[in-house]
Specification:
By secondary structure, the protein is mainly alpha-helical. The chain is 86% helix and 0% strand. The chain is elongated and about 60 Å long.
């Protein structure tokens, strides 16, 4: 590999490590440095790092959303979406659409969020990305919950949970079980709420 490829790969590792440690502003700075490095490459070299570029832009959009820099997050995610489309990468397109949908949902643009989630689901269905499909159902459940559509939210969360169980995705199982527990508690179905919460706690203890 070229030295610049190694530098970009290492830089991405450092940025993601900062994000994992919740050093979000540091992560933003590292991702932006990586984009500068990529932008300074010759056109032929940039073609060889399109996949890396999508990863950098996608991660940058996500961490900018975490710190509430919504306009910048949208710009990064839209760039990731365009690159993913250029590459004809359905999973990357779906991930970018999902991020954009989440951003729209948090700032209250609920119709735009739903359109983005539907677009993400279409992309993930095209290549059978079950993890992506489960993630969309999860966010659609949250959107329905925010709109007061409790039955719809419960159905979407339950469908996502089934997929997460099939994939042994325990981290996301805990989030879904917690959400389902909240719905059961709102309905004063205390036995079901307790069952959901206990299962959630059991998995979290197993994960450490």
């Amino acid at each position: 590999a070229h030295e610049w490829q190694k530098a970009i790969s290492y830089g991405l590792h450092v940025a993601r490590r900062a994000k994992e440690m919740s050093a979000n502003e540091m992560a933003v700075a590292r991702y932006q440095e990586l984009l500068t490095m990529i932008d300074e490459l010759a056109p032929s070299e940039r073609e060889n790092v399109k996949e890396l570029s999508v990863s950098v832009l996608q991660d940058l959009g996500d961490v900018l959303a975490i710190v509430g820099r919504w306009q910048e997050a949208e710009v990064a995610s839209l760039r990731a979406l365009q690159l993913a489309r250029d590459m004809d990468d359905d999973s990357a397109v779906g991930s970018a659409q999902l991020s954009l949908g989440y951003q729209k949902m948090v700032v209250g643009s609920l119709n735009d969020a739903e359109q983005r989630f539907e677009a993400a689901l279409h992309s993930f269905n095209r290549n059978g990305n079950r993890s992506g499909i489960g993630a969309v159902y999860h966010q659609q459940g949250t959107l329905a919950s925010r709109q007061g559509q409790t039955d719809v939210a419960e159905r979407l969360y339950s469908t996502s949970l089934e997929i997460r169980r099939d994939l042994d995705d325990q981290f996301n199982q805990t989030n879904l079980l917690n959400n389902l527990g909240i719905i059961a508690a709102r309905r004063e179905n205390w036995a079901l709420a307790r069952s959901r919460y206990l299962e959630c706690l059991d998995i979290r203890e197993h994960l450490g």
